[in-house]
Structure formats: structure tokens, C-alpha cells
Amino acid sequence: MKYGERVLEELKKNHPGEPEFIQAATEVLETIQPALDAHPEYEAASLLERIVEPERVVMFRVPWVDDNGKVQVNRGYRVQFNSAIGPYKGGLRLHPTVNLGVIKFLGFEQIFKNSLTTLPIGGGKGGSDFDPKGKSDMEVMRFCQSFMTELSRHIGADTDVPAGDIGTGAREIGFMFGQYKRLKNVYEGVLTGKGLTWGGSLARTEATGYGLVYIAAEMLKELGTSFEGKTVAISGAGNVAIYACQKVQQLGGKVITMSDSNGFVIDENGIDLPAVQEIKEVKRGRIKEYADTHPSAKYYEGAGLWQKVKVDVALPCATQNELLIDDAKALVANGTLVVAEGANMPTTLEATQYLQENGVYFMPGKASNAGGVATSALEMSQNSQRLSWTFEEVDAKLHGIMVSIYNAATSAAKQYNLTKGGKLDLVAGANIAGFMKVAEAMMQQGIC
Ligand code: NDP
Ligand code: 2IT
User: Is residue 326 a contact partner of residue 390, using CB atoms and an 8 Å limit?
Assistant: First the structure.
């Protein structure tokens, strides 16, 4: 049995209750084998056995009081996965589906994603099964303060720098930062995604969505075309989806669908983005409301968006495992050229395989959504320097980073001659490129 397979088998035996983590590990360990073959010293140093094991896992109780005076209790997590190339860095997810396996999958992906950014950041992730939906601002604040009361013992500007993710946006980052400052009496860049008047970076809000579209544009360029005149499907209607839509529109593409966890809208005239922003960012409402004010749009309850549209480009930007095998078949049948993941692991392994083998040019999330964390690292740099860069400066750096990620993934795929369906295998390419930098750093730092 090959080294990667052996470690994966052991991992499956040890963590039967963490399917998302096993899925993420499977994708990496099955695709980096060519690099492992080229570096037998990794096996001798049990490098993979170490890389699949978080350096530290913190789990804690988060008690808070709701508006009715009732005590509520949630579970909090921070997985500090790997610090070989920098302080732990990664978002905080607030969603009822959060559990240890989900945070481990996200933290594991983050190691390789952060490595791909070219910036000095290690991998981590955290969150809670708290659901901000339907809670008052004061309830969200009391939760965030309680969560940070414990988390503050484990993080710091040079130790571990959390940020947003699903359910954690500007409001939550503000409440958490306020509590950290109060507890520690230091003003430092301990979180990213901060408000613009108190240490946040311009373009961080837009960064994940913009970065996704910048890399998808590189993919289209390789195919001899561009976003101009292309029809695009985007799932989700949150931070990543909204700014992906904005950038696609700026580049001349037409986005015809967006969604949330209740359902999706299709507007063949093209999504009216300011209307979506009003519903989601201002009113914290549901995507269904879009159809109430747009006669050209139709609302569909439930999932299934990918099977209802004929698009050139698909950008899944909601959550893990939202693009399944039947969706992949529909996309292939409808002639989709490019799929680039805005969310973390939105495409199942089976669907990914199908898309790739049928000639769809596919970019995995750890490469295509890395613009968010990359810009977080730029926020850290600005905080350390105590100055701030213009929107244009940050956006230009983001664009350069996404092009370099594209080049890293394609170069690794070319180096090992990895293709699928007649296209470069960018899943393997991105995994190998991200892995190699971390592996080399770990080898140089001894057994730790
Ligand atoms: P938001 O909370 O802003 O938006 C999430 C969107 O996805 C919402 O429309 C939400 O709908 C939908 N969604 C969430 N969970 C589910 C579910 N179980 N089923 C269907 N739809 C769901 O989060 P982000 O936009 O920040 O994150 C989206 C994805 O991008 C996540 O996978 C995240 O990990 C990833 N990501 C985010 C980065 C960032 O900088 N924010 C960076 C890199 C990756 P509803 O409102 O109904 O819950
Ligand atoms: O998944 C991710 O990369 C994020 N949620 C962003 C993390 C960050 O630290 O900006």
C-alpha cells in the first residue's frame, strides 16, 4: 500500500465520526502521492502522520443569556492545525451544523490554502454551533462576548488570528474584537475582517468573491475566452456569493441565479445585485423576497439549482457538499466550461471526479477561495505597520496573488504530468503546491 493510502486508512479507523474531515483528507492524500514518491524522506519522518493531526484542539462551553433571561449553552471550538509557515490563521463559523469534524475539515483545508497564498500564515479554524439567524443584536453580542472570553486565552496577533466565515461577518467580528481588547488591554490585529475605522483592510469584504472571479478568469483565459458575455450560476447569497456576483458583472458576465439555505431564484435578465444586497446585507432577509419585487425572477424552494440552469461557469459559494453527482451530470450535459469553488469543499468527491473526467476545467476551493485569507494576511501586515493601503493597492495585490495561485497549481500539475478529461488536474496541482511548502518547512523544523 502506498504511503498516502496507508495514512488515510489509519485516519478513517481513528475518526469514523468525522466524515467531512475524512473527505477533505482523502482528497489531499489521494492526490499528493506523486510528490510523496519523489520525496521518500517524508515517509521516513512520518510527515503525513503529523500533518493530519492538529497541533492543538480547544473545545469549550459558551454560556450566554437570551432576551428572555434564559441561559443558553453552545459549544465552541478552535482547531490550531499547523503552524509550520506562520501563526494559525482561519475563520470562525457560526452555524448549527458546526461540530469538531467540520472544524477539522476546514482547518485541514486551511493549511494548504494558506500555503498557496504565498504569505506566512499557518492553518486553523474555529466556530460554534450557535445560530445567529433570528437572534437579536444583543443576543449575538452576548454570545460573541462569552465565546471570546474563552477564545482570548488561546489567540493573539502573533499566535492565532481568527476571521469571519459562515455566520460571522462584520457585526460578529466587532463584538469579538471589543471583548478581546477589554480582556487583554492590548490593541492588536488579533482578528481580521475588522471595521475600516479600527484596523480593517479595504477590499477584505470583497476579497473572497473577487479573488474567486480573478482565478476563474485565468481559467477562462487558458481556454481562450473570458467572462464577457458568459452566463454564470452562483449559489449562496452571503459574503462570498455577493462579491463574486459583483466582479462577474464588472467583467461583462451575466449571473442568473443565487440561493440561500431555503431555496434559489433564477432571473434570466441577470441578477439585480443591489436588490440582493438590500435583502441579505441590510434586512438579513431571505432570497425568496427577491422574486416578490422582480417579475422576471422565479423562486424555487429547496436545493437543485445546478440542474435548473444552463451556464458557462458555475461558482458554488454556499457550503460543503452542495454540488452532488446529479448536479455534476447536469452541468456537463449543459456544456459548462468552468467550475471554481467559492465555498470550502462544496463539490463532493464523486461530483468532482465526474466534472474533471468529462472535461470541465475545475478549480478546488483551497485555491480559488484563497483570496479572502490572503487579504486577511494583508490586513495583518497593515496592522503590524500601523498604516493602511488604498483599495486599489490591496485589490492589485489580491489579483497578483490569485494569478500566482493559478500558476502554482498549473505548474505542479504540469511538473507531475497530471491531467483529467484532457485538462490539467488542478485538484492535484493545488494540493501538491500547497503541501510541498508546508512539508519542506516541517522537515527543516525537526520533529515537532
Ligand atoms: P455567509 O454566512 O455570508 O453566507 C453563506 C451563504 O451560504 C448564505 O447564503 C447561506 O444561506 C448559505 N448556506 C449556508 N449554509 C448552508 C447550508 N447548509 N445549505 C445551503 N445554503 C447554506 O458565509 P460566506 O459567504 O462567508 O461563506 C460561504 C462559503 O465560503 C463557506 O463555505 C465558507 O467557508 C467559504 N469561504 C468564506 C470566506 C470568507 O472570506 N468569508 C473565505 C473562503 C471561503 P442562509 O442565509 O440561508 O444560511
Ligand atoms: O475559509 C476561509 O479561508 C475563510 N473563512 C477566511 C479566513 C481568514 O482568515 O480570512
Answer: no
> Which amino acid does the sequence have at 187?
Y
All 3 cell numbers of residue 121?
A: 500564515
Q: Which of 89, 104, 113, 125 is catalytic?
A: 125
pTM: 0.98
Which residues, 6 or more positions from 444, have their beta carbon under 8 angstroms from its beta carbon?
A: none
Judge whether 176 and 184 are in contact, CB under 8 Å: no
At 37 the pLDDT is 98
125 tagged catalytic: yes
* Set of cell numbers at residue 447: 520533529
- 15 Cα–ligand 2 center, Å: 25
**Ligand 1 centroid from CA 224, angstroms:** 31
Cα dihedral 192, 197, 199, 203 sign: positive
Ligand minimally distant from the alpha carbon of residue 245: 1
Evaluate the CA torsion angle 67, 72, 75, 77 in order and state its sign. Answer: positive
Which residue's CA is minimally distant from atom 15 of ligand 1?
A: 319
pLDDT digits (tens, 9 = 90+) for 295-331: 999 999 999 999 999 999 999 999 999 999 999 999 9
Cβ neighbours, 10 Å, residue 182: 12
Residues 6+ apart with CB under 8 A from 134: none
- Nearest alpha carbon, ligand 1 atom 17: 261
CA of 114 to the centre of ligand 2 (A): 9
- List of the chain residues with pLDDT < 70: none
